[in-house]
Amino acid sequence: MFCVFFISCIKEEKNISYCIPADRKLFNGECMKKRITLIVFSVLIIVALYVLYCFNYIPHKKYTNADFNIEAYKSNIDKDNDGIDDQTDILNIFKFYI
């Protein structure tokens, strides 16, 4: 469908026929409306896919420390005595912030 639309909007050059009727022009109203509609629709689809990807509605691989053989570090200090070491507290705060 897109190829037919694109071919129908190509300008004739040097008596080479591109299957365009003689009365069609490159920038006529009908052709431009179709082209603008196609561009707007394409941009909306791309934006929608990007938003869905960012909010994890489109699944993608997430890596963990185990994937790279990185040992999780556990601090011995717990100043607020909540049972979670201070380094993990700080890391969780930054993950929540981001």
Account of the protein in words:
With 98 residues, the protein is mainly α. The protein contains three helices and no strands. The radius of gyration is 28 Å and the shape is elongated.
In brief:
46% of the residues lie in helices and 0% in strands.
Sum up the structure in keywords.
mainly alpha; disordered N terminus; 3 helices; 46% helix; 98 residues
Q: Distance between termini? A: 43 Å
The best one-word shape is elongated
Compute the average pLDDT: 77
Provide the gyration radius in Å: 28 Å
Number of strands: 0
What's the SSE blueprint?
Blueprint: H1 2-8, H2 29-54, H3 86-97
